[in-house]
Amino acid sequence: MPAGKHILLIIGGGIAAFKSLDLIRRLRERGATVTPVLTRAAEEFVTPLSVSALTAARVYRDLFDLTDEAEMGHIELSRAADLIVVAPATADLMAKMAGGHANDLASTLLLATDKRVQIAPSMNVRMWDHPATQRNLATLQSDGVLVVGPDEGDMACGEYGPGRMAEVPAIIDAVDRALSDGPLNGKHVLVTSGPTHEPIDPVRYIANRSSGSQGTAIATALRDLGARVSFVTGPADVEPPTGVDVIRVETAAQMQDAVTAALPAGAAVFAAAVADWRVTSASNSKIKKTKDGLPTLSFAENPDILAGVSALREGRPQLVVGFAAETDDVIKNATAKRKRKGCDWIVANDVSPETGIMGGAENDVTLITADGSEDWPRMGKSQVAQKLAAAIADALG
Ligand code: C5P
Predict the structure, then answer these.
(1) Which pTM does this prediction carry?
(2) 61-82 residue pLDDT tens
(3) Which of 6, 76, 120, 290 is least surrounded by CB atoms within 10 angstroms?
(4) Measured from the CA of 303, which atom of ligand 1 is nearest?
(5) Catalytic residue among 157, 261, 297, 361
(6) pLDDT band for position 352 (cuts 50, 70, 90)
(7) What's the 274 CA to ligand 1 centre distance in angstroms?
(8) Has residue 1 been placed in a domain?
């Protein structure tokens, strides 16, 4: 929806800067005005002339360009935009933003702005994985900066991994969302999804049949209503949505740590199928077949993440939503579960094998609240997600 919108595009100095030329074209095709800012390093990758030609606008390059200050100071430049997009966002630009530096035009604009900022990180995989970059990323996310990508794939430097700048259509989608006036704009929502894997030894684990599709659909629907979504996912069959903060975990213990780190949130939806037990006899080396008999596994109960968050005295999300996958007496058991876990709502469903719900495309749910229960007709998991996201938006006001 960028028609008539004004986007300040900061192009950082990375190999992906060439994609920003296509981004400019696509944004303008959709009716947006693009004001370009090039960092010094960006000029090594794209020329101010080509950027100026594509935007049909002047290119801002230097903080100390007095003509700029006479025409429009950096404060006005950063505030005249509806949205600031940084693409590519290099490790250095992210570090400057996280640290609040203002030592060139780009960083000064980013510090001076009162508008939403969206970044498309792009860097070598080792730079992306470095704890400093991950720290900066967490800081930026908690400052409300929207992050799109990076993608995983072959990199210009010959390595493979996360660090490639998101593709232009994904950046455009994120721009659309950032500019839309969704009811959850400015709200942070946490979603857990997928199964957990509990290791027996380095090659074996205990898992369950959750595909992660309902949780993924919920994260997508919340995102589409404008929420900033932290998506904590176990090893699922489906890819996480774009435009959400993805935190991948394997075990229930890791999921609990990730949930704690992602709070505070306005609402939290616990759609993950968390393993009830972990193997306490897990071995660091592969358990061998022996003639002496079969191995014995011992178990300990996993932390109940939903119950823990529901019971928080400080920082409890305003709305906590749990799921109850049951096979018998669905409503009765789910109603009791809502009370036991201390959550506000429970989405109950019958996962008996004949329903085809576990791993299937449809769901048949009952929403249980303190006021009673509401039976929803059987529908696609995306429709369930949209209905739930709309109810969450209503509840958060
Ligand atoms: O007790 P049960 O596993 O049926 O509870 C299901 C609900 O509790 C789901 O919302 C699930 O995500 C959440 N849960 C959790 N941590 C656990 C077990 C379940 O967050 N250890």
Answers:
(1) 0.72
(2) 887 664 655 556 777 888 889 9
(3) 290
(4) 21
(5) 157
(6) confident
(7) 6
(8) no
**Structural domain harbouring 264:** 188-396
Q: Which two tokens stand for residue 171?
A: 């950046």
Q: Residue 313: which CATH number?
A: 3.40.50.10300
Calculate how far, in angstroms, residue 90's C-alpha sits from the geometric centre of ligand 1. Answer: 39
Residue 345 Cβ < 6 Å to ligand 1? no
Distance 183 CA to ligand 1 centre (A): 28
Residue nearest to atom 13 of ligand 1 (CA): 306
Across the range 242-261, mean pLDDT stands at 94
User: Same domain, yes or no, for 242 and 304?
Assistant: yes
pLDDT at 358: 75
Helix or strand run (H / E) with residue 151: strand 151-154
343 catalytic per annotation? no
Q: Name the token pair of 207.
A: 């898992």
Q: Ligand 1 center to residue 248 CA distance, Å?
A: 18
Report the CATH number that the domain containing residue 149 is assigned in CATH: 3.40.50.1950
Q: Answer whether residue 205 is part of any domain.
A: yes
Does residue 284 belong to any structural domain of this protein?
Answer: yes
**Amino acid at position 294, single letter:** L
The domain total for the chain is 2
Is the same domain home to 108 and 166?
yes
Q: Are residues 253 and 284 both part of a single domain?
A: yes
Diameter of the chain by CA atoms?
Answer: 86
Alpha-carbon span 315 to 305, nearest angstrom: 14
Give the mutation target among 251, 274, 344 for probing the ligand 1 site: most ligand atoms within 8 A of CB: 274
> How many CA atoms are closer than 13 Å to the CA of 299, on its beta-carbon side?
10
Residue 357 is predicted with a pLDDT of: 79
Whether 305 is in the pocket of ligand 1, judged by its Cβ within 6 Å, is yes
User: Which of 306, 338, 363, 367 most suits a substitution to test ligand 1, by most atoms within 8 Å of the C-beta?
Assistant: 306
Q: Is 115 exposed, middle or buried (0-12, 13-18, 19+ CB in 10 A)?
A: middle
What is the sign of the dihedral through the CA atoms of 86, 134, 159 and 240? negative
